[in-house]
């Protein structure tokens, strides 16, 4: 049986969707709109609610038409009803689950009351239990080996988000993994990207225009500066990623040719490497795959993951890399 909260949420949603005369809406149309927002309700229940609410609010039923059309009286005062539909609540819950690392900390704080309201809506009663259970029926599974995300102080990510949101420079102390030392310099934030377990700040340093990827967990301190950040002319984060930046980039596009065992290449028929991908039969049990792809480290990791089920053919430089890797592996396993 629906709870009192469930009934109240449904009736608020109904009142917000009833138009003012001369426009009107039928009980059947209202039922459809409520169902599309996640309420489980019958036409009979909507009709019963309408008759009940018309004794409290200035609602008019046009009994000259069949089915009845319902409206707010044309002289009724306009007022807003606080309400969140189950669908809106579910969307907020999923956003909190999956986008927290990409939303500015200040914005998350502002959204806290809405998250609390969403929790209340999805636990309000039987009328929304199917939609409330949706979170338990969907999941995102990483395609590679899951890793535990690195820790970083809340103050670091808050400063990064604040500088990015306000378009200000950021003074950071950064521990370089390659150089093994911590340096302090001004950064011009361009974007935040989450790649697997690691969050990266995309930025330029000092007055240079070359773009750097800075792992947020290696930032030891961060302070927003008064100076405005400057972005390279025509920089676009989406285009930067599309060109293979998080591959990580090593060169431009290459024409890849590789021999795969037929089972290993089967998924490429459904999820191709590129629009121009071609798969042709090769020797028994093998196929030849050709595609134009970014020549990134990510591509190399992906190919290495197939082990002895792939042979790189072209370009020649990539084949030479894999020959060297295979010889090194042979030496390691035959000591």
Defining key terms:
Arc Repressor Mutant, subunit A, 4 domains, 335 residues, four-stranded antiparallel beta sheet, alpha+beta, SH3 type barrels, five-stranded antiparallel beta sheet
Briefly characterize the structure.
The protein has 335 residues and is α+β, with helices and mostly antiparallel strands. The chain contains eleven helices and twelve strands. Strand 2 (59-62) and strand 3 (69-72) form a beta hairpin.
Major β-sheet profile: 5 strands, antiparallel
CATH arch. level architecture of the largest domain: 2-Layer Sandwich
Number of contiguous helices: 11
What sequence of helices (H) and strands (E) makes up the elements? HEHHEEHHHHEEEEEHEHEEHEH
Derived structural class: alpha+beta
CATH topology of the largest domain: Alpha-Beta Plaits
Query: How much helix, percentage-wise, in residues?
Result: 25-40%
Question: Kindly, what is the distance between the CA atoms of the first and last residues, rounded to a whole number of angstroms?
Answer: 71 Å
- The oligomeric status of these chains comes to single chain
Total domain count: 4
Radius of gyration: 29 Å
Overview of the structural elements:
The chain is α+β, with helices and mostly antiparallel strands and 335 residues long. It has 4 domains: 4-72, Orthogonal Bundle (Arc Repressor Mutant, subunit A), CATH 1.10.10; 86-137, no CATH class; 167-242, SH3 type barrels; 253-333, Alpha-Beta Plaits, CATH 3.30.70. 37% of the residues lie in helices and 24% in strands. It is built from 11 helices and 12 strands. It has helices spanning 4-17, 27-36, 43-53, 86-99, 105-122, 129-132, 154-166, 237-242, 262-270, 297-304, 316-333, and strands at 25-26, 59-62, 69-72, 168-175, 182-195, 198-205, 212-215, 219-228, 253-261, 278-281, 286-294, 310-314. The strands form 3 sheets. Strands 7-6-5-4-8 form a 5-stranded antiparallel sheet, with helices on one face. Strands 10-11-9-12 form a 4-stranded antiparallel sheet. Helix 2 packs across helix 3 (43-53). The termini are far apart. The model has no long low-confidence stretch (mean pLDDT 84).
């Amino acid at each position: 049986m629906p709870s009192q909260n469930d009934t109240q949420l449904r009736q608020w949603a109904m009142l917000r969707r009833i138009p003012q005369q001369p426009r009107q809406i039928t009980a059947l149309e209202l039922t459809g709109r409520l169902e599309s927002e996640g309420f489980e309700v019958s036409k009979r229940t909507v009709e019963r609610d309408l008759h009940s609410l018309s004794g409290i609010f200035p609602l008019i039923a046009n009994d000259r038409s069949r089915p009845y059309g319902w409206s707010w009286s044309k002289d009724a005062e306009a007022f807003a009803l606080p309400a969140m539909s189950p669908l809106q609540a579910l969307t907020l819950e999923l956003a909190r689950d999956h986008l927290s690392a990409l939303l500015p900390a200040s914005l998350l704080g502002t959204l806290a009351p809405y998250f609390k309201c969403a929790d209340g809506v999805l636990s309000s009663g039987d009328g929304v239990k199917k939609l409330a259970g949706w979170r338990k029926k969907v999941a995102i599974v990483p395609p590679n080996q899951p890793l535990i995300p690195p820790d970083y102080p809340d103050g670091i990510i808050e400063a990064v988000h604040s500088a990015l949101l306000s378009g200000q420079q950021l003074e950071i102390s950064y521990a370089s993994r390659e150089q093994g030392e911590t340096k302090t310099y001004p950064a011009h934030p361009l974007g935040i990207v989450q790649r697997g377990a690691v969050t990266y700040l995309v930025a330029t340093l000092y007055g240079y225009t070359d773009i750097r990827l800075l792992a947020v967990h290696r930032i030891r301190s961060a302070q927003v500066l008064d100076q405005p950040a400057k972005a390279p002319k025509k920089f676009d984060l989406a285009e930067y990623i599309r060109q293979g930046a998080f591959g990580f980039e090593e060169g431009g596009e290459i024409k890849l040719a590789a021999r795969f065992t037929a089972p290993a290449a089967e998924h490429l028929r459904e999820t191709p490497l590129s629009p121009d991908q071609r798969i042709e039969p090769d020797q028994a049990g093998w196929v030849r795959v050709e595609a134009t792809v970014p020549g990134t480290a990510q591509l190399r990791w992906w190919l290495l993951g197939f082990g002895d089920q792939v042979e790189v053919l072209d370009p020649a430089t990539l084949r030479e890399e894999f020959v060297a890797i295979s010889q090194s592996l042979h030496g390691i396993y035959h000591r």
